[in-house]
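We append the chain.
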Amino acid sequence: MFKSLAVYCGSSPGRDPFYRELARGVGVLLAQRGIRLVYGGGGVGMMGAVANGTLEAGGMVTGVIPDFLNTRELKHAGVEDMRVVRTMHERKQIMVTESDGFVALPGGFGTLDELFEALTWSQLAIHAKPVGVLNVEGFFDGMLATLDVMVARGFLRQEDRDRVVSAETPEKLLEAMSAWQAPDTLKFLLAR
């Protein structure tokens, strides 16, 4: 189903080497399944690990990095299809356009920013692509619980909460994202 997936993750590796290996494994899995990785273009941290995994397994990678982060995030030297853009907005737009779905790995503010923008754009019928979080070791439990509170208190419709697909392993996440169906309201809005 997926020809390409955007992976949102940190330029930091985290404290536990487990996370770097997780990102690398996601990259390997994408390559093994013939899915092109679209990511933030960095060569360090989780970003570097997911790109390295994809490249080491013979997969295709598209990096998108704003010029001003080129020095801070150290653009990945091994990615041939590297798009250097002027702004974060351009970066996010290209990642959405180039991808058939979105996966958030553990990360920080930037990861959450990209994740929630992809969700918001789905809610606004700008795209009808699955959005998933790799909730390994409960990393996203708090965020998912907050979304449930938003539903319970009337700030988020259950239909919109259900746009977030989550699983504890990369394989299960890709399976769940493949099975995801756009809500009827989204189908209606996109058909107009």
In short: The helical segments are 17-32, 45-56, 88-97, 109-123, 141-152, 158-161, 170-179, 184-191. The beta strands are 4-8, 36-39, 61-66, 81-85, 102-104, 131-134, 164-167. The CA atoms of residues 130 and 177 lie 6 Å apart. The radius of gyration is 16 Å.
